[in-house]
Amino acid sequence: MESLILTLVLAVVIFLAVLQRATRRTGTSPTLATIRVSDPAIARRALIDHADAFSNRPPTPFPVPIVTGRRRRRSDSITTVPYGPHWRALRSNLTAEILHPSRLSLIAPLQEKAVESLVADLLLAVAGGDDVIVRDSLHAAVFTLVARLCFGDGVDAADVSEMQRVKKEFFVAIEDAKVFAGCGSRMAKLVHWRRRRRFMDSRRRQAELFLDPSHCGKEAKLLRERRPREPPPVPVVVRDVLAEDAAPAVGRGTTMTTTTTLAAGTVRVNFILGDIGRDSKAWTDPDEFRPERFLAGNEADGVGPVPGRKEIRMMPFGAGRRTCPGAGFGMLHVKKFLAALVRA
């Protein structure tokens, strides 16, 4: 019995010694300093004047690779690839094919179904006397629309519910991974393996669900091409419904002032979209809901959802080189859903 206990103690001591040596050798990954930008002028200087320095997304929160080998490049997307030829090719393919205006006109039937579902859902909630949370209903309508756009109109409510559940698991796994993002690589592999396994299980369930061949053409109805309808006579009110979200970027080395230099790869910059869109120097009573400010002749005349090079007054879809390529796609939904809610 004593020999067994001695053997166990010796094994634990050896394990701790090896672990300490491995951690000392690999070191720890430095934590990126975070800068929050809420001033539109600074945002314009960073994203437009110094576009080369702020054109990359932050590194993955996972301390160990999730996809390895030849599959790793196939898993890249425009949100993860560093700025360069590969990123430009991915974005060009997305904007020239999937999100081209000529293709957006094909989604009118799916859009009409989503609008009908949204209005019916809200009317049902009102009739039941429950608190009506419009944001949740809008999210469900848009998610259903995008799911059917990707996989065909054979996607039913049960499929959408399962997709939302898997998506939630995916983001929970990412948040769990951030806890150990600053650990050394050896320590990360020892401590993080259970969360990595859970993330991989979530990825596998996504593949089984999202890549079901029965939703990818066999039962999908062909959408007949329609001429895009005229936009409804409703002013753009995106600025007034912005969430206080943050668009992250990583500084690659630039001087913003004469006294501050951002070292390459060591700074995470968050652009606070809600604060930028409510700057009191750019808007009169920025916290007031005044959609008429976007009408011709008023203070927001000519201000669009994607800022130009001279001025940033709001940036709901980002700014600079990594502006969201789905801005037109999103605005199409905003106008359609808003007009339906006003009529309802």
TrEMBL record:
<dbReference type="GO" id="GO:0005506">
    <property type="term" value="F:iron ion binding"/>
</dbReference>
<keyword id="KW-0472">Membrane</keyword>
<dbReference type="Pfam" id="PF00067">
    <property type="entry name" value="p450"/>
</dbReference>
<dbReference type="InterPro" id="IPR002401">
    <property type="entry name" value="Cyt_P450_E_grp-I"/>
</dbReference>
<keyword id="KW-0732">Signal</keyword>
<keyword id="KW-0479">Metal-binding</keyword>
<keyword id="KW-0560">Oxidoreductase</keyword>
<keyword id="KW-0408">Iron</keyword>
<dbReference type="GO" id="GO:0016709">
    <property type="term" value="F:oxidoreductase activity, acting on paired donors, with incorporation or reduction of molecular oxygen, NAD(P)H as one donor, and incorporation of one atom of oxygen"/>
</dbReference>
<dbReference type="InterPro" id="IPR036396">
    <property type="entry name" value="Cyt_P450_sf"/>
</dbReference>
<keyword id="KW-0812">Transmembrane</keyword>
<dbReference type="GO" id="GO:0016020">
    <property type="term" value="C:membrane"/>
</dbReference>
<keyword id="KW-0503">Monooxygenase</keyword>
<feature type="binding site" description="axial binding residue">
    <location>
        <position position="324"/>
    </location>
    <ligand>
        <name>heme</name>
    </ligand>
</feature>
<dbReference type="GO" id="GO:0020037">
    <property type="term" value="F:heme binding"/>
</dbReference>
<dbReference type="InterPro" id="IPR001128">
    <property type="entry name" value="Cyt_P450"/>
</dbReference>
<comment type="similarity">
    <text>Belongs to the cytochrome P450 family.</text>
</comment>
<keyword id="KW-0349">Heme</keyword>
<dbReference type="InterPro" id="IPR051103">
    <property type="entry name" value="Plant_metabolite_P450s"/>
</dbReference>
<keyword id="KW-1133">Transmembrane helix</keyword>
<protein>
    <recommendedName>
        <fullName>Cytochrome P450</fullName>
    </recommendedName>
</protein>
<dbReference type="InterPro" id="IPR017972">
    <property type="entry name" value="Cyt_P450_CS"/>
</dbReference>
<feature type="signal peptide">
    <location>
        <begin position="1"/>
        <end position="24"/>
    </location>
</feature>
